[in-house]
Amino acid sequence: MTRVLFKTLLGLCLAIFSALVVSSTTLELSDTSSPNQTLASFMRNSSIVIEHWQQESLHLKEAQYAYSQVQRTMDLSMVPNRSRTVVVMEKVILLRELLDRIEQETLQRAPNLEQVDEQGIEHWRFGNTEIVISRQMEGERRDQFLFSSNTIQSLARWYRTMSASPYYVEKRPDYYQEFLISPGPLFSKQLIQSLPQSFNRLHGSLPYGNGLLLLEHSSCADC
What we know:
There is one protein chain. Helices cover 55% and strands 6% of the residues. The chain is mostly helical and 223 residues long. The protein has a 3-stranded antiparallel beta sheet with strand order 1-2-3. Strands 4-5 form a two-stranded antiparallel sheet. It is globular and about 55 Å long. The termini are far apart. The relative contact order is 0.10. The model is unreliable at 4-10, 12-25 and 202-223 (pLDDT under 50).
């Protein structure tokens, strides 16, 4: 009886310990104390967010937490409708597309906190791009290093410039091209991918298929 009770208590302790370890790993706050830490935080959390987005599971707690943390690495002050998930997701995916096309040596040069303090660094630019991480000089985020508002605003233009460049880490599908044909929460990606190729041609800023589905949803809403 004593041995059974001991095993039960041991199992319970191990379960609690494992839960605490998972919780501390999953609920890690974004570190924006230096360009190096901001970059690392963005890469870690954007990977989680993009994976859940591809699996259509952004509603899960892990995805929502990572989404909130990836936002903390970016200055979204100039982004209209930044409260809408689709708007922020586009910025996250575009920034990830650019960073994955930059040489690893260039990314690794991002200064850490010690270098920031020693050299008085206020801004850090990645190579010859316009991707900049800047220290916030005022407001609630003062002294935190974020991808600058000008960087966030120029992502689409830089994507058009760099989209032909190869990925340096691994060969993978273009997330942004997937995003352009993503139907949102009302329709599955499988449905969109099953449509004729003409539905995926861009008309303005949206694929033709998305436009039709949006119109169909609007008309149904009036029924």
